[in-house]
Description:
By secondary structure, the chain is of the alpha/beta class. It has 10 helices and 10 strands. The strands form 2 sheets. Strands 3-2-4-1-5 form a 5-stranded parallel β-sheet, with helices on both faces. A 5-stranded mixed β-sheet has the order 6-7-10-8-9. Helix 3 links the parallel strand 2 and strand 3. The mean pLDDT is 96.
Amino acid sequence: MSKGKLFLIxxxxxxxxxxxxxxxxxxxxxxxxxxxxxxxxRTARRYISSLRLGLNIEELRFEILDKSTKGGELERIMxxxxxxxxxxxxxxxGCPGIADPGSAAAAYAHGKGIKVVPLSGPSSxxxxxxxxxxxxxxFAFHGYLPIEKKDRILAIKNLETESAKxxxxxxxxxxxxxxxxxxxxxxxxxxxxxxxxxAKNVTGPDEMILTKPVSEWRKSQLDLHKIPVVFVLYAGN
Length: 237
């Protein structure tokens, strides 16, 4: 029996934007799948329903793939692939495998000779980089910075130093309810001439992608509480 394929399926970053940001290729792929690995079943069901594909959601099978999924559990949920069934992987938001547990499924599939098919879709990280005006030839994504203030400030200083030394754009995120704390640390820690891009609610109706020197950010009070934000830093030439 031939093996199935593993499809990495992008989802929306902001609610009610599927018609604008999700391609016909993604919709056609989802329409032909009945088994999905997802971070959150409720979110996945709502997303598939929003695509209006005429599917009976109750007939679809969902298994959880999150940061806690390891070893034997991963092997179990990947089993349909060896029975010839195609499987879709969905992130909670954006593209699977980028700061996302979907990478574990892709790595497992490669190790077992299963074809991995990534589909194009919105990625807050890459959209923020595109809109920042910073160096797109050399960049690094760091995910979440440390929670402890002392460690977070040290990490910010290290990112700035590395950016200046290697002319490299630095991209990172924070849990939405800690955004304002991170923003204050960035304003107080970074050099005035360092450039900082704030990309909030990317693809949403109130999207903002704005780049300014830190000296200018210090003059403004931006409320980022509980809003999805990508931070992009550049201290290069």
